[in-house]
Amino acid sequence: MNDGVRWLTEDEQRVWRRYLAATSMLSEYLERRMQQDAGIPHTYYEVLVSLSEAPECTLRMSELAVRSRFSRSRLSHAVTKLEAKGWVIRTSCPTDKRGAWATLSEQGRAVLEAAAPDHVEAVRKALFDVLDSEQVRRLGEITGAIVDGLAEECEAVEADADEGPG
Amino acid sequence: MNDGVRWLTEDEQRVWRRYLAATSMLSEYLERRMQQDAGIPHTYYEVLVSLSEAPECTLRMSELAVRSRFSRSRLSHAVTKLEAKGWVIRTSCPTDKRGAWATLSEQGRAVLEAAAPDHVEAVRKALFDVLDSEQVRRLGEITGAIVDGLAEECEAVEADADEGPG
DNA sequence: ACGATATGGTTGAGTCTTCAACGATTCGAT
DNA sequence: ATCGAATCGTTGAAGACTCAACCATATCGT
After folding, report:
1. Which residues are in the HTH marR-type domain (chains A, B) (predicted)?
2. Is residue A32's beta carbon less than 7 angstroms from any atom in nucleic acid strand C?
3. B10-122 in CATH: which number?
4. What residues in A contact B147, CB-CB < 8 Å?
5. Ordered alpha helix ranges (H), B34-87
6. A81: Cβ under 7 Å from strand C?
7. Domain assignments of chain B as residue spans, ordered by start
8. Residue range B128-134: average pLDDT?
9. How far apart are CA B79 and CA B100, in angstroms?
10. Would you state the pLDDT for residue A36?
11. For the domain with range A10-119, which CATH number is right: 3.40.50.300, 3.40.50.720, 1.10.10.10, 1.20.1250.20?
């Protein structure tokens, strides 16, 4: 029965399935909460947060994409919506004419501040209220290991892409 | 500065952000791997797995929705696609004329079995290879707590909905 | 200085998901 | 037996995301 595939053990399967259940339930819960209580999707909220933490509340599109873990394309579409709502302002970059800045507007900041309490409450209810401090510490370690591992994978993939087909 | 909001501590913020990074990176990694290596979205793969584990490889649509954590609507759309590909077969239920069965076809089983090694390899690379067995055990506990907590929340929400507006 | 290449960002088409509304059927109370 | 409410599943439209293609600009090698 050794076919070269490193199948999961029973325990690993249980953990994997619970992981899938937990992460999807949590993200759905957060999405629903944010949409209903604050009237803004959770992912858009994260974009506004990234901007609010930048100097002058302004970032280059590409940098904003990295910080909010959006693809360039996804961010471009998202900022179009956010601009239409008046929460973000696009301006073109004078030193690099290809580039564009995104800036959090006053209105955007107001929306962000109004949504923040709902957001933190949802995160607490779903995550920190059900874990003791030891578990929180361990979750930090575990997620850190996952991020590091995947960061390596991603670099490897990019390196492959750079090499080209021959 | 006590405004009644239970803001996150610095440590909690760090953990929360790493959690977001880890879960989104992992799901993107898996999605990409499955799409490229096996030519099937990860979520669809999970639907096929759920079916394959049912007696006769058959489930009611609503039950399949619960097991794969799809909304009814999402599942209905998804099964339409899977049926078009010939991987799933819909049949109407004789005892309950509202209902419908979904059955994994032979072709569907073949696709599933072909994709399984790629899937398990991706899960290992992203998760189990970067964690020691102690961390895996703890991840199981933590995700279990999250699932339990959110299950309660969901019941509460449903109960509210049942009560109606007054 | 010039052409090739790389980068920053946008766009449109296609796909997936959500949401609300719907038709059909079953259940429950009277 | 019948009427109202709940359940099962589907549908269509709107929103969000991905992917590939694309312009415009900047950078690099010569």
Report:
1. 12-148
2. yes
3. 1.10.10.10
4. 18, 21-22, 25
5. 42-52, 61-67, 72-84
6. no
7. 10-122, 132-166
8. 97
9. 11
10. 84
11. 1.10.10.10
